[in-house]
Amino acid sequence: MDFLDELRTLREQVSFKESFSLPEKYSNVVIAGMGGSGIAGKIFQELYSRKPLLSLDDYHVPEYVDSNTVFISMSYSGNTEEVISSTSEALERGASVFAVTSGGKLENIVDNAIKIPPGLQPRSSLGYMLMPLLNSFTPPDESSINRTRELLEELDNSNEEMKVEAEKINRRELIPVVYGSSPFRAVAYRWRTQFNENAKVLSSSHYFPELDHNEIVALKETYHRKRFIFYSLEGTGEQRNNARIGATEQVTGLEINRILPKGVSDLERIFYLIHYGDYLTYHLAKLRGIDPTDVSTIEKMKKLL
Amino acid sequence: MDFLDELRTLREQVSFKESFSLPEKYSNVVIAGMGGSGIAGKIFQELYSRKPLLSLDDYHVPEYVDSNTVFISMSYSGNTEEVISSTSEALERGASVFAVTSGGKLENIVDNAIKIPPGLQPRSSLGYMLMPLLNSFTPPDESSINRTRELLEELDNSNEEMKVEAEKINRRELIPVVYGSSPFRAVAYRWRTQFNENAKVLSSSHYFPELDHNEIVALKETYHRKRFIFYSLEGTGEQRNNARIGATEQVTGLEINRILPKGVSDLERIFYLIHYGDYLTYHLAKLRGIDPTDVSTIEKMKKLL
Questions:
Q1: Distance of CA A20 to CAs A53, A118, A122, Å?
Q2: Which of A46, A197, A234, A268 is catalytic?
């Protein structure tokens, strides 16, 4: 599938209705996943705070994981070694284990696995990965899903603005630095990783208000100040975090490009911002003459290990 | 106090004996703190996994915070607005609230506050902040504390290696990218923020194995590849994460400077790596002709808000 076709499947993905049969009682949640499969858990972590939730991106589970834990394994391929390792541990501990995968080993070791369509890049399956989490813990209403589809379709049909932005980055060979704030911290991280995987450009991310306690000090005097470009995804959590964007600009004399999320609910806004970043990094790849789907470096690394 | 004198207090700080009188029963832990005061909670999070633990660096507490929560507020000044906000919420929810502070409002709103000496930069008080957490939840043995003091003293007396490294960075005006892996992910973040606050240089951080799922793709073809310098703090968790350092070098053709932690216990290794980064960034500041203690940007920002 062409990468643009992949991107266009996102609007279908938000209508994915599968959910987990959660146990009646549980006291904490762990969502395991790496890279493009792990981002769903990182995003969901900011939307759910009824119980302690850990987004796990390493080989081993914390000591507290036991029969009171809901453990959800996310791996598009179903063969990610870190996820297989942590999932095996969770099963041994007696946790309630669920999975989202297109196949692989994961399907064999987890009984309650939601199957999603194969053939996509893991990072293009975000809807399939995120919707089961939302459907299970905090079901979105149908109108919000419909509006999300419309917003995504709008972006599919008209992403000129993102192309112009990508041209600006490419003309001056800028390193993108992306700032988020609650509940879009993980979306800033997603942008960073899409700059990496699609456009093959290094990128950094951080979030308000934390960055005002450290990174802000470097913004005025760092080496190569003109070689960075700054983005800020305006949050809908604490409003003082948005006031911080302007104040950070004022104190450092730097321009921070504000990306305003469209949409009424956080669901809409998250998918809108995600897709904005998808197109920005897609266009940047094209301008650089780089294949956005090529992640052979990751494959080579896996073989070496 | 001169910044070097501040750095030299760290070896005294590790002998700080205060601890919290934790309740007999609690089901989760939240440690609130920003920037130089928040890093202790981020480091501790990797050392403790008996119960769910959240390192909170925003204004509001999660929904689950209640009387079963141990809530620890860390603010060197005692006046950090995000921490005052979250601590007030935790008190309203009936959590068991503790604090570490040198004074300020926090001392007035939290009964169980451990007082630490004033007059330091918040980021230079890491020992005073981290030890009460360790003493309360996972008391280190005296021999490990003694060895930590010795290691820190060694670095205080001989940090030529870090100066040479700083000269390399400054001569070529390199942007440092710091990789950690469990249990030193937060130490990589600490290095990043010390590059920011001490040397006024932008920096990025990430961690194994996650970076092998995204950032690795950018390392070969990014803009300005030669303008970055890469460090990796060798971890003591999953050994495959260390194998990943070499494999990442091989696949990308980049050199990643490995920093090997000295010490027998993770306590020693963490403080060793922290102090290594302290000196590296201190020397870089000096070479740039920059005052490492100057964080007036943060002060200006606070006034603007």
A1: 16, 20, 20
A2: A197
